Amino acid sequence: MEWLGLQLFADLPATGRIVIDCRHEPFLVLLAYFVACAACFATLDMAERQSHSPEPTAHRQWNMLGACCLAGGIWAMHFISMLAFQAPVEVHYDVSLTILSLLIALGVAWLAMYSLERTQMRMHHFVQSAVLIGLGIILMHFVGMAALETGAVQYYQTGLLLASGAIALLTSLAALCLARYFRNGSGTLYQAMKYGASLLMAAGIVATHFTAMSAMTLVIPADTALRLPSGDNSLQLGLGIGFITLLISGASISAALADKKLQSKEHDLRRVSVLLSQLDQARASLQQAAHYDALTNLVNRRGFNQVFAERLAEHQASESRLAVMFLDIDHFKRINDSLGHDAGDELLKVIANHIKAATRSQDLVARFGGDEFCIVTSLNNRDEARHLAQRIMQRMKEPIDLGGRRMVMTTSIGISIFPDDGTSVEELLKHADLALYQSKDNGRNSLNFFNDNLKTQATMALQLEEELRMALLEERGLCVHYQPIFDMRSGQLAKLEALVRWQHPQHGLLGPERFIGIAEANGLIIDLDLWVLRHACNDLAHLQRYGYGDFKVTVNCSAVTLSHDELPNEVEKALFHAGLCARQLELEVTENALMGDLQRTVNLLKRVRALGVALSIDDFGTGYSSLAYLKRLPLDVLKIDRTFLQDVPGSQKDREIVQAIIVMAHTLHLQVVSEGVETTEQQAFLKTHGCDYLQGYLLGRPVPLAELRPLLERLQRQDGVLNPCYGKVLPGSPDLFAGNPGYRAGASIARRGH
């Protein structure tokens, strides 16, 4: 194909002389690259100024200046590179075509700057513009090459010709992306990256040119005389063009820098003006933020302490009475866990409005954080405080629409009275907090006044905490009792449940309800659970050495321990040191212990189960949405809570619940253990309805290891017959901890969450 005298996509002729002694002057090639780098850097600066110019006139000026810099740079690079071309023929340049190539370069550069004006540019916009710009660069190059008059015909190799076109397209796309990216930014790293981008863009432009030059072959027709070069002023002309182009690029860069500094100063002045205008607002908002809760607009703890101290001083001077109320929303954690923190925040706003509606305008209402609120009110007698607390509790029971659900919340309240319960801010708050925890312990949705017994209980709890810490550290006083669990079908002992006890030197044998809560509140529960785990494994290994190890040992796991990432490693370590197989250990977790991060819990339980350890869910039916998550958990055993069995077989509802649980568990391929079996009627009922395992005082009570061997010997003599140990257990149960729902818990009575 012939175009402007150029033979594109054409084979070499059969006749003619090929000019082979062609080369490029290295200095001019380097100068061309340097000119291209300067032009690219100037163009990036112009694109940046273009995007930061708010006035349309300035925007257009930077647009045109950028187009001139880019066009001048590309054209000068091309012309200097052509001047660098040396061949043993006489070389002239057609002025009209040379000027036309410059105009094409200007058009390409304007198109590039125009493309950058778009507010939003998607990938297809970049590609479209890059194709047009790349084609323009190729057109400029070959128009410029057509201006080269040597007496020879230019033939172009197809492969390299297409390669130069591809390089031009990629370079155009990269240039657009880089110019778009570098419109915003500052700092040394940003400037260094801009330098690097300029070098890369210039390299692409130079590569386009020289790839096309490599595709060119000069062929002198056979009937044309060879004209040798008469003189060479290429170096001087290249230096002149390069100097002019660099001067223009340098002036443009200087203008861009000056504009940037001027704009920065103007921006700084505007910022100072705005900051000065905002300073007064900030002073007011700081006062608001320092003393008020952002979510509920109630007084926060800092503001409360200040106002409360002032009011307390007034009441001390007037010798009048004052009440301090601590409020805590019952089971608030469930809302955050199930509906998310946004729903929890909305609920707090509604509750704050309920509290403000139930109190008087002169009462001080504050939010301390989380779901804790505090009220300070003046009064004449304790009954006024009680009536106010009851109004708040009644207001709380109004239905609340939240997250597409209609729910009713309750609150627990603790009250302290000035001056009866304290005369300082700290003392009154501490005593109200103690009364609040008493309300929680009483089952929530209640109010309690502070009394001296609460202070005594708090002191005793602190003492027990210190003594429990020492008992764990010195392994003194703590012990493990074991209660047998029987296989209903074979009548044989199948498991031993490990149950922690504390032989206190002053208080005697303490059940878990006396110290598990203390251990959980003070970070001791994990150490306690792991202590029980290690001792249970060692005790089972001890029994094996005497020929009594053909059963499992089950160990309870608290909610805190269940969130301990090292639990699988600790289980594996305990089994290894005791020399037990993993199948001889079973971990029990309560429903309440599973109500945290369910996915994390599932992953942790899967790691434990992968060791070969069986998993059991304890106290089933007493927790939350059991059926919703039961299928997701890697469980082997389900334990029916003793509360469902107490009135069996007398209560029809309890009978039906137990039957349903057994059927459901078997459908899910879970074995069933029934706890709290205390009568022969209960035993017969469970046998009739297919319960797999039995546990209770009818068949065996928890005993220490020292008393376990005689029990095991007696069980062996029964030869598979389940005989009651104590006969029919009447309402006066032999269970020392029957009043406590978690009496069998090892180190794992799950604390009730907020």
From TrEMBL:
Query: What keywords would UniProt list here?
Result: c-di-GMP, Membrane, Transmembrane, Transmembrane helix
Main subcellular location? membrane
Question: What CDD domains is this protein classified in?
Answer: EAL, GGDEF
One GO cellular component this record assigns the protein to is:
plasma membrane
PROSITE patterns in alphabetical order: EAL, GGDEF, MHYT
Q: Where does it live in the cell?
A: Cell inner membrane
Annotated ranges, domain EAL: 461-716
Cofactor(s) recorded in Swiss-Prot or TrEMBL: Mg(2+)
Q: Residues in domain MHYT?
A: 24-219
* Catalysed conversion reaction: 3',3'-c-di-GMP + H2O = 5'-phosphoguanylyl(3'->5')guanosine + H(+)
Q: Where are the transmembrane segments?
A: 27-44, 64-85, 91-114, 126-148, 160-179, 199-222, 234-258
Source organism, top-level taxon? Bacteria
**Does Transmembrane count among this protein's keywords?**
yes
Q: What is its EC number?
A: 3.1.4.52
Domain annotation GGDEF: ranges: 320-452
Gene Ontology MF terms in the entry: cyclic-guanylate-specific phosphodiesterase activity
Top enzyme category: hydrolase
InterPro entries linked to this entry: Biofilm_reg_signaling (IPR052155), EAL_dom (IPR001633), EAL_sf (IPR035919), GGDEF_dom (IPR000160), MHYT_dom (IPR005330), Nucleotide_cyclase (IPR029787), Rev_trsase/Diguanyl_cyclase (IPR043128)
Q: Does Ligase show up as a keyword for this record?
A: no
> One Pfam family this chain carries?
MHYT
Q: Name one GO biological process term.
A: cellular response to nitric oxide
* Listed PANTHER family: BIOFILM ARCHITECTURE MAINTENANCE PROTEIN MBAA, DIGUANYLATE CYCLASE DGCP
Name by which UniProt lists this protein: cyclic-guanylate-specific phosphodiesterase
Q: Which lineage is the organism of this entry classified under, starting from the top rank?
A: Bacteria, Pseudomonadati, Pseudomonadota, Gammaproteobacteria, Pseudomonadales
